[in-house]
Every structure is written in structure tokens, then in C-alpha cells.
Amino acid sequence: MVERGPTGQREREILTAIVETYISSGEPVASRTLARGNKDGLSPATIRNVMADLADSGYLEQPHTSAGRVPSAKAYRYYVEQLTGRAHLSEADQDLIQGSFRGVRDAQEFMERTSHVLSLISSGVGVAMTVAGPRNALEHVYFSRVSANKVLAVVVTRSGLVRDRLLRLDQDLSQADLDTAARYLNENFRGWTLDAIQAEVVRRMESARSEYDHLMQSVEELYRGGALAADESHQNVYVEGVSNLVVSEADQERLREMLRTLEEKQRLAELLQAYLDAKQEAVRVVIGLEDTLPQMRNFVLIGAPARVGGEMVGSLAVIGPTRMDYEHTITAVSYIAKLFDKILNETQ
Amino acid sequence: MVERGPTGQREREILTAIVETYISSGEPVASRTLARGNKDGLSPATIRNVMADLADSGYLEQPHTSAGRVPSAKAYRYYVEQLTGRAHLSEADQDLIQGSFRGVRDAQEFMERTSHVLSLISSGVGVAMTVAGPRNALEHVYFSRVSANKVLAVVVTRSGLVRDRLLRLDQDLSQADLDTAARYLNENFRGWTLDAIQAEVVRRMESARSEYDHLMQSVEELYRGGALAADESHQNVYVEGVSNLVVSEADQERLREMLRTLEEKQRLAELLQAYLDAKQEAVRVVIGLEDTLPQMRNFVLIGAPARVGGEMVGSLAVIGPTRMDYEHTITAVSYIAKLFDKILNETQ
DNA sequence: ATTGGCACTCTCGTACCGAGAGTGCCAACC
DNA sequence: GGTTGGCACTCTCGGTACGAGAGTGCCAAT
Questions:
Q1: What is the mean predicted confidence (pLDDT) over B33-40?
Q2: pTM for the model
């Protein structure tokens, strides 16, 4: 019962070879096959011995007694680990990606295209989202009177997100009132996060209750109408490439479940948020998504946070079958994540 | 070779019964089955005779010699035709639909939920879109300086659509310039369609070229930056319920094709636009989508335009298998289309 | 430690068979 | 003449059997 990973040089080589062969062929790999491709000229029997060891330590599984071996989740984790460092993206892919983002102006657009490109490049589903969370810093807010008691609020955040929302108010504020309120908010709170603003507005309203002036009354009204609410429910999640699932997943019921899950943007957002955080530097590869989502058995998440400056404003990821081109996908995700920061910085 | 539809009373009854039985069972319907369910007490043999006639006139098809009959596209068209009038939506569904639209404020939100509800209610894919076309009437435009040469433009249309866009300008306009330009556009063009405004702006710029003032220069700059462009490319198309396809379409390759098509929002938009227009009063049912989209063989579109007042601002539809509950889906689509007008009118 | 040899296991494609479901048509019937 | 029972014929589908092929596990020899 060896529990500290493949020790020997040969053991590691063979494990890597098995994973790679299985990824490209999709069939359980046999000792013969490996022996053929191996320049060391080892015999199948020798390889069988090593394979038996690897199976004992949980790296390989056997569909049935007389079939070849299939890598386990543990094997994929080892493989990805071992891969780290030799990342390089082909010229062609760099061009494809660069081209896809030509003319992109804001984070929304970027994310939309990201999901598209990722679905093209990988054999999985491209997912990208912006966090419309309360952590976003305010850049600008505008109000515009649409009709009696209806006001359009537009919030622009520092990270380039634009969020418009139609408010229904109890009072009928004039455009002049709205302009004053907007100026007040912009001058006092530019750069603050939305939740900080909310808290502060509440505080000021309370302390100013004695000398309750017209301005604060407008602000209160707008606040209560939800002008500054950071509605989690309306996150923008872009998903593309679900047709890729059809080939990698034969089971009808599973496929159906997965499609359903991918349509529940809310859960998808939680999934990404669970695995990706602002601090992490590199791309994260999660093998064994079934811990969070049972229907995602045999699927993998390869994702990275999208940052502008130091701030995390979204996530991008590929959700694909365990049998995928890790090296390629990882480098692509990493490349796009870096591109995001670059493009969005120069856009500001 | 009879070519004027099912003539006799009995012929019609049997055809209807066949379509209904096939829709609910999914299996070729046999003369026996029909004889059992028929209170007229006809024998299977009699029914076989009628079925043979219906097959001759192209209403029925036979998978193989000794199988029951399957309705042809022609039969479905007859069936839907014949259905017209007896539309009624159950209380439960009315409640479900009503509930789904609680709190909806603008057309975008409405469409998003429409695609969701339709996918739940029908056995197909719910599709809904707003036309971001040039025919929309301007309600309001705002500009806001984001940074040097970067301006945020927000266009609100009369039908409740809000469209924001980040412009890159050659000149650096001050916020005061922008406010003046916005006031100019709002005062002069409220209620005009976007393309009319574009044309008129060009005309005025030319005629005013002699006495070229500061205001017109700002307006020209904004115009050239695309402030008023009605970008077709960025229509908002909402698609939901693709998981429903898995059950109705077994063929892997077809399924894949369909999923891919449903992700191409642009083509989907064209499809809807091809079949739905502002003038049509009722729900339109298109049987035989393969004429437009080959991969949509055996699929059906049930759709209606979404109108506010007289103006068409979007479309909603169900794309589902020929084997679906037509009555139910048609009434649901019709109901939601009416609801759209009602909700969006009172929102304005 | 490595290897050849060999018995054993499991899958997969093919062929075959019989039951079941349905039709088509004919002759009889009302 | 429309309707019906009867019957031969066709086609599908599930189950079984079987042989080829691929692979392993293990042992004895190197």
C-alpha cells in the first residue's frame, strides 16, 4: 500500500504515458500498446507489473478483469501537477484569441467572447462571468426620470461594468432632484464599494434625521428603490459550447442533467466562486467536480479569476470531460486571464 | 389522388385521433388502438381502409410495411388548423405564468423570463428576443465622460429597452459638452426612430457646415463614435430549455447540430424574424423547420411577435419536436404575448 | 529485475430464432 | 356499397449462442 505517489522514474513515465494515451484514444490502455510506443524497449510483461503497482496505489482502474487500465482522478491530478511549467500556447491559438477580442470595450463583452473562444479551443464548455457583487467600486451613477414614479438608474463600476435598473419609487422626484442626488453620490462615494456605500448612506440618513433636508430625502427614496443594490441574482454568466458535451457524454440522462445545470446560471456562478478566488495566482484545475455537482461526474474545471489591477471582477473557466487536452486548455485559460487584465486596463 | 384535404367527417375524426394518439404515445399508431378508443365501435379493418386513403393523400406515413401509421407534416398542419379556436389555458398555468413575471420592469427582463417559462411549460426550447433594430423610437439618451476620449452612452427606447455602450472618441469632450449634446438630442428627437435620427443628424451636420458651432461638432463626434448605432449584431436573444431536446432527439449528430444552432444567436434571430412580423395577429405555427434549417428536421416553431402598443419590439417562440402539445403551447405563447403588451404598457 | 508463455476472462459482433404486432387483401355479410 | 372477420405475410425486437480478439495474471525461466 504505497501512499506517496509514484516513486520510481519508470513508474512516473508509465503513468504519464497511460494518461496521455487514454486521453487521445479514449480506450483503456493495454500493456502491449504502451510497450510499442516506448523506446526503452520494455516488454509488455514488465509494464504489466508496473501497472499492477500503480493500480494498487489507486492511480489506475480496470473496467473489467481483462481490459486495459484507465487513469483514476488521482492519476489526472498527478498528470496535471507534473505538467506545470511546460506551458506554451501555439502561435495560431494566440492569433485566434487575440483576434476574438478585437474591438472589445467592456468586461461584459469580453466575457461573452471568452466563453465563445474557450468553447472553440477546448473540448468542453466555455464559461465566463462577471461578479455583480457588492465588492465592486463605484465609478459613476446616473438617474433619469422616465415617468411619474419611474426612474432609470445606471451604475458604472470601476471595473467597467454597467448596470441599469428601472426603479419604481413611492415619491415622484423631479429630474433636478435626481441630478442633485446623483451629484451627491458621485462626489461623496466615488471609489467606494457598493456595500460600503449602502451602509454609509443608512448611517448618514439616521444621523441627519433631525435636519432632514430635501436632498437626503431624495437619496433615501432612491436607496429604498434599490438604486445601489448589488443584485446577486442578476449576475451575467456566459456559457457556450454545450454541443461539445454531446460527444463526450453518451448517457442520455446524464447529458440532460448537465444541460439543465449549465442553464442554472446561479448555480454555475456558485461553482466558479467556490473554486476561484482573487488571491490565487495561477490557473486552477479541479478534477472530480462530482463532489460539488453529482451530475458532473468525470468532469473537470479549469479556471482562473479575471482581474483588473488587483481586483477580481469575474471568472473564466472551461468545464470539460476528464479526457481533455489539459496542457492546451490550461495555457489558453491562463493566456486569456492575462489578456483580460491587459485589455481592460487600457480601456479604462 | 385526392388533393383537397380529408373530406369526410369520419376521415377527419380519424386523422385527428391519429395525430393525438401519436403525440401522446410516440409510437406508430395501429388500427386496433384506434378502434379501441373510438366510441363509434368501428372495427380495425374499417379504420385500416380509411388509413390507407389518408396515406394516399399524404397525411400518413409508414415507417415500414408492417408498422402503424405516423402523421406527416401535412397532417400536423391540418391538426393545428383544426385546433384553432378551442384555445384555453388552465388556471394553474395562468398562475405559473403570472407569477413568473412578477416584478419584471423592462423588456429585457421580460424576455429572459419568457424563455424560461416557455421551456418549462412546453416540451421544447423557449426562445425570446428583443429587436435592437433601428426601428426603435428614442426615449432618452445620456452621455457620461469616463476618461479622456471614453464616453459611456446610454440609450433608452420608448419600448423600454436600455442599451449602454462605451464609445471611443477622437476628441476629448467635457462632461458639459456631453450634457449639451444629450439635451440637444433629447429635445429634438424624442420619439424618432434611431435610423431616422441618424439620417437627420447627417443632414443637419451638412447643412450647418458653414456656421459650424461647438454643439454640432460634439454631436458629430458622438455620432461617429456610434452613439446612435442600432447594432444588429448585439441583439439580445434568450434561449432556455435545451435539455428538453435530449429526450426528443436521440441521434447524436443531429442533437449536436441543433445545440450548435441554438447557440448562434444571430441565426436564431434571423429565423424568428423570417417567420414573425408585426402585422400578424395570432400565434404562428411553422411545421417543417427543415426548409430553413436542415438540422431542424422534425421540429416546429410556435411563435408570436412581442408588441408594445402597435410597435413590435421582440419575438417569443417555442422550438420543439413535432410531437408536442400544440394546444397547450399555442395558448401559452399567445397568453404571454398579450401579457407582454399589458405589463410593458403599464411600466412605461 | 525482466521476460516468454499460457490459461483464463471479458467484450463485441454476428447470426439465429421465435414471439408479437400490424398490415393488406379477400371473401362474406348486412 | 360500406363494413367486417379471417388469414397470410412482413417487420421489429429481445434473447441466446458462439467464436474471434484483446488483455490480464501469474509462473517459471533467465
A1: 84
A2: 0.87
